[in-house]
Amino acid sequence: MKDSYDLLVIGGGPGGALAARTAATAGYSVLLVEKRPAPGAPVRCAEGIGKDALAEFVKPDSRFISAEVTGAELVAPDGVSMMLSSEMAGSKVGYILDRKFFDRELVWQAAEAGADVMVKTRASAPILSGGAVKGAVLEYCGSRKKVHADLTIAADGVESKFSRWCGIDTTVPVREIMSAAQYLMTDITIDPSTTVFFFGNTIAPEGYLWIFPKGNRTANVGIGISGKKSGPGNRAKDYLDRFVAGKFPNGKTIECIVGGVPVCRPLESTVMDGLMVIGDAARVVDPMTGGGIYNAMFTGRLAAEVGMKAISDGSCTREGLMPYDEGWRKSPLGKSIERNWHIKEKFITLPDAKLNAIIHSAKALDLRDFSTISLVKEIIKRNPLLLADLAGLMASIG
Amino acid sequence: MLPANSIGMLKIHRDICGYCGCCVSVCPEGALELIDAYLEVDERCTSCGICAKVCPLGALEVTK
Ligand SMILES: Cc1cc2nc3c(=O)[nH]c(=O)nc-3n(C[C@H](O)[C@H](O)[C@H](O)COP(=O)(O)OP(=O)(O)OC[C@H]3O[C@@H](n4cnc5c(N)ncnc54)[C@H](O)[C@@H]3O)c2cc1C
Ligand code: SF4
Ligand code: SF4
Fold first, then answer.
1. pTM for the structure as a whole
2. How far is B46 from chain A (nearest CA, A)?
3. Are A121 and A54 found together in one domain?
4. How many other C-beta atoms are found inside a 10 Å radius of the C-beta of residue A93?
5. What is the ipTM metric for this complex?
6. What is the fold of B10-62?
7. Which residues span the domain enclosing A387?
8. Burial group, residue A100, by CB count within 10 angstroms (0-12, 13-18, 19+)
9. From ligand 3's centre to the CA of B27, what distance in Å?
């Protein structure tokens, strides 16, 4: 570890790793710090990602892919289910990753590209000078060191503190944190090529419960509920335990995972003098699905691209870094986050009877793609009775 | 339960905590920090209970 770098990246998740890999590949000096002993572990994810989405950033490899999925099943509160079929979607649907290996692979690639990597190293404070971020204080096994950098990228995930220390309010509203629990279960009977989503206010209030296959008889079985609905006796784990007791009474749990997914709007600003914020730390998760792996990689790469230019121009100011903030907001990703936030706001108000009606009507459709938007558009088209409920969405859908 | 770590009125039950960071993200005071597998609370905590509500496992408790 040197005393100063062009770029300091805080956090070794998919966002931080992509930022570090991008800048190191282009020849910039980069330090990536990760507070945990190993990137990716313990896992805090259901590990689903679209095939195309993954391929934008890394060559698919069986070392970090647990399963390929070709279809999805949506289950209404009354138990009626609809399939988003594989024939309709071709073969390009999704992967269930193995994040322990995936996250490590990405950090590995950053290191191979020339980035310095420090694990078990925590950023504990920013170095601030005249209101600008100039690096961070790092703590490593009892020692403390200041590392200066022209630019710092906060990729510190849902529990992000770094940008808060720099003056950005990152608090997630209680009603917009998905409180999540998941078991990696084995010895259960599932369809190994289909992801299953369960909806309903008794099963997963203001959220959903999922089964993501990781093998023939193995799957991530998990749930996210609104923080607002969480409380003694009705926490994510309680809901999950009730579901598992009914559905997989003889299944074996070989890993217990918990987490929080921010489904609020992104930070008002993701740049300040000397600092960029990416991934979960920037709250750029898809508010409807809770998916954030792609979003973290996308913002990580874009931040590095804009950041490299700013470093070379000696302009790592808020203005110099602004093309990153504007860039992701204007991108298809930024637009879909905005749109899906509105859809989510409507979705969480629907009583079970409405959820039933939606899934019953969608069951009759030939859906060719899995996006929330096409689903909602089709449902509105075919089911005018729901229009009144979903009308507010039309404006944001366009 | 162990009063594992209690500053002010917030108790962290370390035997329950799964160190996921969910609570850290909702604390309006920035009083929580996840140090690897070790959650810490500092003097900024106002015992508002928000973190205790959202914890997926119920590892946090505000005691009166
Ligand atoms: C239960 C659950 C299920 C999910 N399922 C999916 C899914 O199926 N598909 C999907 O796309 N997304 C899913 N997500 C969301 C996804 O996990 C995140 O969006 C993604 O990991 C974000 O990547 P990131 O790089 O921004 O942050 P993270 O992956 O959280 O990485 C942040 C890293 O920063 C480190 N760090 C934090 N503070 C510091 C510090 N001060 N110093 C040094 N290091 C620090 C952390 O240890 C961590 O390793 C799920 C989340 C949860 C909780
Ligand atoms: S939300 Fe609960 S399990 Fe997660 S870190 Fe906080 S106390 Fe621990
Ligand atoms: S009780 Fe309130 S102030 Fe204290 S740590 Fe929890 S959320 Fe923060």
1. 0.94
2. 15
3. no
4. 22
5. 0.92
6. Alpha-Beta Plaits (3.30.70)
7. 339-397
8. middle
9. 5
